[in-house]
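In response to the reviewer comment on reproducibility (Comment 2.3), we provide here a single inverse folding case reported in full, input and output, so that an independent group could reproduce the run without further information from us. The structure tokens appear first.
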């Protein structure tokens, strides 16, 4: 845990030196330092850090012994008829012509995710320090030290794809989704966001969305079965006692507070309408996590917009209040992280 705390302390230190000054170049330096720190933590981790880092190493070593044809034969048939994700293994095999060391490969994966994440925060977050601290507390375990396939898929459809959503370039967005679905089929769940991103928050729309959320919770079993069949991940099944209660309460609380202050948020940043719609879609998928924790994979495509929404909420307070809220949020995130007490070690 010490390494993670050092990382967060450095983020706060860089923030105090750079972010509090409204100079774009200093903001860019902060984001650069924060991104590099997370590339180091993610790429230089030991195989014991993360639930499946060792498993991916075994697959990496195994694929080195196979010919390229083993990954290209039946490629599209596998994409559309089986639960495997051949795009990731083809990508891995092609990379192995240049990179043969697994640790260097982890650094590459970290760069593929963290550099787009850094730009995502630099471009769209009103408070980059809070965004990086949120990532360091809420999302690092999911994207920085565990599943490589969904990490790459998320970088494509969310962190890069969002730029095309904003620019309304459907063709480029769908191309990214098509590539990402060969890496992790769950990325298809992000497609509706393109069409709902600019949906205005009328009373009728909000009532409909909350009705959908309640309905999906009531009928979560058939909804779960439908998604499992469509995605091809028929190995997933309902599990007793499942449910991301704490995360669900946190996401819903942020959504309700944001809706309470939506007029101020949208007055400050009209593009924040995207953040509202992303979190509404995340809330629609929360009932699935009460059947199988793996369904959090779907929620995470949308919940990354918490990194942008929470800073927008902070920005709605008056200047004096904002400083109190700002530093309270930083302290709360630090305390939440300390309570989790995660373990970390470098590969050396």
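Designed residues, in position order:
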């Amino acid at each position: 845990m010490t390494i993670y705390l050092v990382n967060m302390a450095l983020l706060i230190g860089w923030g105090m030196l750079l972010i509090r000054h409204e100079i774009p170049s200093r903001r860019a330096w902060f984001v650069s330092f924060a991104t590099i720190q997370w590339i180091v933590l993610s790429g230089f981790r030991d195989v014991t850090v993360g639930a499946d880092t060792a498993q991916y190493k075994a697959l990496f070593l195994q694929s080195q012994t196979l010919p390229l044809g083993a990954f290209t034969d039946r490629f599209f048939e596998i994409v559309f008829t089986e639960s495997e994700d051949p795009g990731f293994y083809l990508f891995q095999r092609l990379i192995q012509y240049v990179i043969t060391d697994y640790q260097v490969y982890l650094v590459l994966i970290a760069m593929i995710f963290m550099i787009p994440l850094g730009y995502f925060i630099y471009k769209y977050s009103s408070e980059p320090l809070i965004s990086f601290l949120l990532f360091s507390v809420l999302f690092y375990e999911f994207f920085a030290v565990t599943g490589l396939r969904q990490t790459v898929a998320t970088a494509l459809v969310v962190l890069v794809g969002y730029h095309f959503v904003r620019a309304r370039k459907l063709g480029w967005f769908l191309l990214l989704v098509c590539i990402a679905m060969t890496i992790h089929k769950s990325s298809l769940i992000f497609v509706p966001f393109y069409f709902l991103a600019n949906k205005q928050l009328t009373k009728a729309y909000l009532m409909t969305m909350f009705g959908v959320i309640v309905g999906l919770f009531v009928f979560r079993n058939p909804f779960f079965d439908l998604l499992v069949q469509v995605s091809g991940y028929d190995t997933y099944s309902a599990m007793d006692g499942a449910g991301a209660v704490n995360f669900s309460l946190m996401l819903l609380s942020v959504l309700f507070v944001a809706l309470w202050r939506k007029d101020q948020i949208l007055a400050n940043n009209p593009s924040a309408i995207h953040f509202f719609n992303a979190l509404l879609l995340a809330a629609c998928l929360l009932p699935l996590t009460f059947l199988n924790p793996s369904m959090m994979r779907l929620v995470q495509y949308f919940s990354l917009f918490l990194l942008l929404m929470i800073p927008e909420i902070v920005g709605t307070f008056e200047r004096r209040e904002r400083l109190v809220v700002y530093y309270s949020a930083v302290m709360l995130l630090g305390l939440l992280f300390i309570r989790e007490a995660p373990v970390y070690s470098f590969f050396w």
